[in-house]
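Journal club side-thread
Mid-discussion, someone asked how the predicted structure for our own chain would compare to the paper's figures. Pasting it here so we can look after the session.
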Amino acid sequence: MNSEKKTNIFTTITERLFNGIIKENPTFVTMLGMCPTLAVTTSCINGVGMGLTTTVVLALSNVFVSLLRKIIPDKARVPAFIVVVASFVTMVQFLLEAYLPSLNASLGIYIPLIVVNCIILGRAESYASKNPVIPSLFDGIGMGLGFTIGLGTLGALREIIGAGKIFGISIIPDSIEPIRVIGSAPGAFLVLACLVAIQNKIKLASGKKVKEDASCNGNCSACHSQCDSKVEDTAKEEE
């Protein structure tokens, strides 16, 4: 019984992490949190810093909301969630001011704006308020890591192409002129659009391959897959 329970917990944790990093990645799939995504990703360190800051707030907020899910009245859910998120954002901002002042200065106003980040409020409303603590914790970690990967990737590409550097270290020869527009606001839209297009291309190709592998070329009786055609034919035979 205990081993089965541990297996279920492990499966839930894995599913929550996969969901946040790949399946429902906030940056490339659900397209949430676009304000900090486009504004702070002028460098990789800014993108990773913003992502990790959001991850900490997201995980802690999910845990706290899950603990209080049976106490918070339905009519006061959103105000209560905002108070919880704002408390953790204030704590994290004080820590950044004390130990990482340069990062805090780079992120600026976008740290307080985490309070109204739709990723955090969305996960609190749709998941943490309806599920136990451990799944909610890893849901927050998964979404946060997905957000961090998205911002880090976007920031790295913009820094390399737009400034010829990565983490402040020059990697492109002086003879090659960086494309400065990539470091500006229009460049953020352009790079994000290219990354989303590449991801969609990969997903479409992968889906097409799976469909072809599952195809029985019309001979459903000899097919072991569970495609739509097979299900329809089985239903007709039962009738």
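Post-session note: The beta strands are 165-166, 169-170.
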